[in-house]
Amino acid sequence: MGILWLSELTVHAPAKINLVLKIIRKRADGYHDIQSILQKVSLYDTLVLKSDSRQGIRVTTDNPLVPTNASNLAYRAADLFLRQQKIVTGLSIHIQKRIPVGAGLGGGSTNAAATLAGLNKLLKCNVEETALFSLGIKIGADVPFFIYNMPAALAEGIGERLTPVKIDIPLWIIIVFPGFSISTKWAYENYKVLTNTSKKISILRHFKGLNDVIGVLDNDLESIVTRRYPEIQKIKHILLQAGACGALMSGSGSAVFGIFSDEQHAREAFQRLSMTSYNVFIVRSL
Q: Does any domain span residue 207?
């Protein structure tokens, strides 16, 4: 008797912010070694995975900025997983987007990770997490973090070496998306790494209070990105004026986040910032 697959599965894919992003060096393969503290937050895309009798992978979405062909990271994840497991089945993936595109919040990577984990469950393959990691890194540097069953981690190498990070307090966060996307490739290509010096530093892995978190906020890409996109710096100032204890561009941008002392202050700031022309989200750390 054959294995009985589930016919449909809904999965939620969280966004991330980078509390720290240090670029260590450019590698011979063109990638960059980094040190980054990644934190999952309560902003989600929703994916519906369905197996059916029609052959091939079909991706649909409610956001016209998201490709639905083989360049879509969820499509690539599904294709890689099915080939690796030697499974022949038709598959449809519908992506309900809430995470802005090209914002430095990991939207494509989290969709890929949710697809890998979701197919593992949908098709009852029982692939171990470490094997899913290996598939994920073939798709994108942030994908393993979203597979990783921890809310925060220190990512090293190109992002595939992950160590748990413990943050003892909940973080209340406002994310502001200015309405334009920034190419990750452009940001990294335009960042000049001093290859003759070692930038690797010791980064905290246990944060006991808010001041510990605010004290490490740092993004090496922010200076190069704000030169071309001064709106980023403007948003940082707006967040700080609205009461944020600290503010930073996430990843390669364009989203900027502010961390607030508590839920009440975050909600008050959210009300003020919602009156601007920006897309504004209130989230908390997972």
A: yes
Strand partners of residue 282: 174
**Cross-strand bridge partners of residue 48:** 10, 94
Q: What would the pLDDT profile of 217-248 be if each residue is shown by its tens digit?
A: 999 999 999 999 999 999 999 999 999 999 99
Taking residue 213's Cβ as centre, other Cβ atoms within 10 Å add up to 23
Domain termination residue (choose one: 107, 133, 164) = 164
Q: Are 32 and 193 in contact (CB under 8 A)?
A: yes
Q: Which two tokens stand for residue 229?
A: 């996109």
**What confidence tier does 173 reach under pLDDT thresholds 50, 70, 90?**
very high
- Domain harbouring 235, CATH code: 3.30.70.890
The residue out of 164, 187, 206 marking a domain boundary is 164
Q: How far apart (Å, rounded) are the C-alpha atoms in residues 200 and 203?
A: 9
Closest listed residue to residue 217, CA positions, set 235, 230, 231, 204: 204
In contact, 236 and 249? CB cutoff 8 Å? yes
Q: Which two tokens stand for residue 191?
A: 């960042």
Residue 1: per-residue pLDDT: 36
Range of the domain at 248: 166-284
Quote the number of domains for the chain: 2
Residues involved in catalysis = 16, 142
pTM of the model: 0.94
Taking the C-alpha atoms of residue 194 and residue 41, their distance in angstroms, rounded to an integer, is: 32
Max Cα distance, the chain (Å)? 64
Q: Which letter, b or e, does each residue of 1-39 get, where b requires 16 or more Cβ atoms within 10 Å of its Cβ?
A: eeeeeeeebebebbbbbbbbbbbbbbeeeeebbbbbbbb
Please report whether residue 1 resides in a domain: no
Rounded to 5 degrees, what are φ and ψ at 11?
Answer: -130, 145
Q: Which residues pair with 15 in a beta bridge?
A: 41
Tell me: do 42 and 116 sit in the same domain: yes
Asked if residue 223 belongs to a domain, the reply is yes
